[in-house]
Amino acid sequence: MGQKERIPPELPGGTVDLLILKSLAGGRRHGYAIAQYIRASSGEVLELGESSLYTALQRLLLNGWVTGEWGASEHNRRARYYTLTSAGRKHLAAETREFDLVVGAIQRVLRAV
Amino acid sequence: MGQKERIPPELPGGTVDLLILKSLAGGRRHGYAIAQYIRASSGEVLELGESSLYTALQRLLLNGWVTGEWGASEHNRRARYYTLTSAGRKHLAAETREFDLVVGAIQRVLRAV
DNA sequence: CTGCCTCCCCTCGTACTGCGAGGGGGCTTG
DNA sequence: CAAGCCCCCTCGCAGTACGAGGGGAGGCAG
């Protein structure tokens, strides 16, 4: 019968931006690599679809948290490299704190007797 | 000048249901009391607006995870008491595991070097 | 050279959800 | 009788994650 099918979970609202910004904290990356990075560093748990990825990147560009420039990938393909701006770095820090605060509060509720 | 204004954070998608279900795990409560419970047991961090609350309760009723019956509140007012169904209890457990899994994965990404 | 796979980009439309604004009614206290 | 708390609900907006769909170009097997 069926193999055990992995259904990647839907990401909670707002977290996609956070994950992408974090992916860029260590240096520039292109979109495809961002998705791979998130997948890998989450232990193969999180799966970021391409549509979610690129719509989020548009948002981040629009808000001035990343900049993009075209270049060639390590596999010699046309790729857009995204870089964190200093505003983006601040935003990442602030949103991470916010995330921790909210998640902590939620967990307190869920663990309560 | 201005007091430090508390701006309650927007809750990540899907978590409202979870919090409500958890609020009912210890017994029936009416809507107003659910909001108070969440506020209190989150350490005054989470603030659930009434509109979010009641739209979520509609969802939960529709999905058969809670049932509702009218009664009188402890303050002698007309109140609708919500009770967890056994399906709701299972759903709560499953969603809590899912939440832990996803949040754990996100945190792994955010903490990564 | 042809077909196919991998890499890499993007948009459109859909479904869902959290929330502000708005609306109602009934105790209780001053 | 006014004010304030308790308690219920709907409507409409804005945001967002995602599936489906649509490219194109390099590399490799046949």
**Largest interface pair:** A-B, 33 and 33 residues
Q: Please give the number of β-strands of chain A.
A: 3
Helix content of chain A: 40-55%
User: What is the quaternary state of this protein?
Assistant: homodimer
Secondary structure class of chain A reads alpha+beta
Distance between the termini of chain A: 41 Å
**Strand coverage percent of chain A:** 5-15%
Order of helical and strand elements of chain A = HEHHEEH
Which overall shape of chain A is indicated by the principal axes computed on the Cα atoms?
Answer: globular
The biggest beta sheet of chain A, please?
3 strands, antiparallel
Summed up, the helix count of chain A is 4
Provide the spatial order of strands within the biggest beta sheet of chain A: 1-3-2
C-alpha Rg of chain A (nearest Å): 16 Å
In round numbers, the mean pLDDT of chain A is 92
Uncertain segments of chain A of ≥5 residues (pLDDT<50)? none
Overview of the structural elements:
- Two copies of one chain form a homodimer.
- Chain A has helices at 15-24, 31-41, 50-62, 86-111, and strands spanning 29-30, 66-72, 78-84.
- By secondary structure, chain A is of the alpha+beta class.
- In chain A, a hairpin with a 5-residue loop joins strand 2 and strand 3.
- In chain A, helix 1 packs across helix 2 (31-41).
- The relative contact order of chain A is 0.16.
- The model of chain A has no long low-confidence stretch (mean pLDDT 92).
- The A-B interface holds A 9-15, 18-19, 22-23, 26, 38, 41-43, 45-46, 96, 98-99, 101-110, 112-113 and B 9-15, 18-19, 22-23, 26, 38, 41-43, 45-46, 96, 98-99, 101-110, 112-113.
- The structure holds a DNA duplex (30 and 30 nucleotides).
